[in-house]
UniProtKB/TrEMBL annotation:
<keyword id="KW-0663">Pyridoxal phosphate</keyword>
<dbReference type="InterPro" id="IPR001926">
    <property type="entry name" value="TrpB-like_PALP"/>
</dbReference>
<dbReference type="Pfam" id="PF00291">
    <property type="entry name" value="PALP"/>
</dbReference>
<keyword id="KW-0456">Lyase</keyword>
<comment type="pathway">
    <text>Amino-acid biosynthesis; L-threonine biosynthesis; L-threonine from L-aspartate: step 5/5.</text>
</comment>
<dbReference type="InterPro" id="IPR036052">
    <property type="entry name" value="TrpB-like_PALP_sf"/>
</dbReference>
<protein>
    <recommendedName>
        <fullName>Threonine synthase</fullName>
        <ecNumber>4.2.3.1</ecNumber>
    </recommendedName>
</protein>
<dbReference type="InterPro" id="IPR004450">
    <property type="entry name" value="Thr_synthase-like"/>
</dbReference>
<comment type="function">
    <text>Catalyzes the gamma-elimination of phosphate from L-phosphohomoserine and the beta-addition of water to produce L-threonine.</text>
</comment>
<dbReference type="GO" id="GO:0004795">
    <property type="term" value="F:threonine synthase activity"/>
</dbReference>
<dbReference type="GO" id="GO:0009088">
    <property type="term" value="P:threonine biosynthetic process"/>
</dbReference>
<feature type="domain" description="Tryptophan synthase beta chain-like PALP">
    <location>
        <begin position="88"/>
        <end position="422"/>
    </location>
</feature>
<feature type="domain" description="Threonine synthase N-terminal">
    <location>
        <begin position="2"/>
        <end position="78"/>
    </location>
</feature>
<keyword id="KW-0791">Threonine biosynthesis</keyword>
<feature type="modified residue" description="N6-(pyridoxal phosphate)lysine">
    <location>
        <position position="110"/>
    </location>
</feature>
<dbReference type="GO" id="GO:0005737">
    <property type="term" value="C:cytoplasm"/>
</dbReference>
<dbReference type="Pfam" id="PF14821">
    <property type="entry name" value="Thr_synth_N"/>
</dbReference>
Length: 495
């Protein structure tokens, strides 16, 4: 299977697409065609474990990777998840389910891909004949950095360095990163906000002089962010697995459609659901849920993407986003894979901050998606109501999706297929907000809130979070934004 750029300039193998991350024309890599999964293949996947299902889906795209190798890597990655099943489906009510994707090492859904990415990346480099060590640089506002550190810790042939804004992450997130284990990891706080931190890291990625300097030392740069196809591919697998679980437990008939509601930020998670549909999985509507930052809701309803608006900080920070980079892959499909249109829109977005779809494209969007946004009060109310009614505690991001799913089901009673709400984080990752929503108690300390939330809900506290309190802090460096490359060199020169 070959991969092409959404902007038309490049055609590479899957291994190259993953090793490179982004196309050299600035576009995103997409598969040349969508590999089909037949009804018979779906039937054959029914008795498989999660890791086997994931390997089967991945191998459809990454056919130059060895299947047994992929399977072994999936087994190793998902063995790190707590509780046996890496993606359990919980029945909430008739026709309403929650797909829990937060049982990985950092308690957020990014673990589903980032536990596997090191294998996909290193093997991709090997397949391409890249001999250098890989240096991963990440600028993070919280969740991605920790998930990437956990995924890449002690990975062969890879080093990872994470930069976060010193005043821009939660106490819990800072603690998660500063106590990170592993011989090949480094974490640096930057005296700035996230945007400055991100652009300082981007400077390193785009500067030839930096690449030269690293090459001399035997390193190439790579990135672990969500536009890498190696992040997208493992996410397609859990839509298949959720569907198969519904079939094997007799809740839906093979072939019957199932809808998914997804809390959306960068559009990576929900795009994976769309890819699953294109591969032949019987997917009904895709419910795109936003928080108060409702740019995607407006886009799906009106066809106009307009980033000229106020940015809000919310209690679902991983969805606080104005530019959803993975949307470019959907635009490519909407335009019948015409890269000229994609380029026009991306240029327009960069220059004017806005673009509008053609009518036929908007019609396609409406066929596929339905969108809603959930404000701060609605987030709190949804967590409260679902806990009252079903004793199910959910996190602030999941609540946005549940809110949108409820509204969709209320408005489409007759046609509603079974609905799976995708849960992207453990409630213990945002213990103060969830505790406040459920009990009205405003607790200042994260660990105290975890304890009280455990008493209130009887839900098990994830081991990785309960251990955090007693872990030694390993990383304390705080750097100015123009000193980041010096920190990189210190790290790889082992000073
Ligand atoms: C990253 C993240 C999201 C958003 O996912 P996208 O793929 O960027 O749309 C939602 N919830 C949580 C908890 C996340 O960490």
């Amino acid at each position: 299977m070959k991969f092409i750029s959404t902007r038309g300039g490049e055609c590479v193998t899957g291994a190259q697409a993953i090793a490179q991350g982004i196309a050299s024309d600035g576009g995103l890599f997409v598969p040349e065609t969508f590999p089909a999964v037949s009804r018979q293949e779906l039937e054959e996947m029914l008795p498989m474990s999660y890791a086997e299902r994931a390997a089967a889906v991945l191998h459809k795209y990454l056919d130059e990777y060895d299947y047994e190798g992929l399977k072994g890597a999936c087994e190793k990655a998902y063995a790190q998840f707590e509780g046996g099943d890496p993606a359990p489906l919980v029945k909430i009510d008739a026709g309403l389910y929650i797909l829990e994707l937060f049982h990985g090492p950092t308690c957020a859904f990014k673990d589903m891909a980032l536990t596997l990415l090191p294998y996909l990346l290193r093997t991709g480099c090997d397949l391409c004949g890249i001999k250098e060590q890989v240096l991963i640089l990440v600028a993070t506002s919280g969740d991605t950095g920790k998930a990437a550190l956990e995924g890449f810790k002690n990975a062969d042939g890879v080093k990872i360095m994470v930069f976060y804004p010193n005043d821009g992450v939660s106490k819990m997130q800072k603690l998660q990163m500063s106590t990170q284990e592993g011989d090949n990891v480094n974490v640096v706080a930057v005296r700035s906000n996230f945007d400055v931190c991100q652009s300082a890291v981007k400077t390193i990625f785009t500067g030839e002089e930096y690449k030269e300097e690293l090459k001399k030392r035997g390193y190439i740069l790579s990135s672990a962010n969500s536009i890498n196809f190696g992040r997208l591919a493992p996410q397609i697998a859990y839509y298949f697995s959720a569907y198969l679980d519904l079939v094997s437990s007799g809740q839906v008939e093979m072939g019957e459609e199932v809808s998914f509601a997804v809390p959306t930020g960068n559009f990576g998670n929900i795009l994976a659901a769309y890819y699953a549909k294109r591969m032949g999985l019987p997917v009904g509507k895709l419910i795109c849920a936003s928080n108060k930052n409702n740019i995607l809701t407006d886009f799906i309803r009106t066809g106009t993407y307009d980033k000229r608006r106020e940015f809000f900080k919310t209690m679902s920070p991983s969805m606080d986003i104005l530019i959803s980079s993975n949307l470019e892959r959907l635009l490519f499909e909407l335009a019948d894979r015409d890269p000229v249109h994609v380029r026009l829109r991306m240029d327009k977005l960069a220059q004017d901050g806005v673009y509008t779809l053609y009518d036929d494209e908007l019609e396609k969007v409406r066929q596929l998606f339905w969108a809603d946004s959930c404000g701060e009060d609605e987030t709190v109310e949804t967590i409260y109501e679902f806990f009252e009614e079903y004793q199910y505690p959910m996190d602030t991001h999941t609540a946005c999706a549940m809110y949108a799913a409820s509204n969709y089901m209320a408005q489409h009673e007759k046609e509603s297929a079974p609905m799976v709400v995708v849960s992207t984080a453990s409630p213990y990752k945002f213990p103060q907000d969830v505790m406040y929503a459920i009990t009205g108690n405003d607790i200042k300390d994260s660990f105290k809130a975890i304890k009280h939330l455990n008493i209130a809900t009887a839900m098990k506290v994830p081991v990785s979070l309960s251990k955090l309190r007693d872990k030694p802090v390993r990383f304390t460096t705080v750097a100015d934004k123009d000193k980041l490359f010096a920190e990189v060199l210190k790290f790889i020169d082992n000073k």
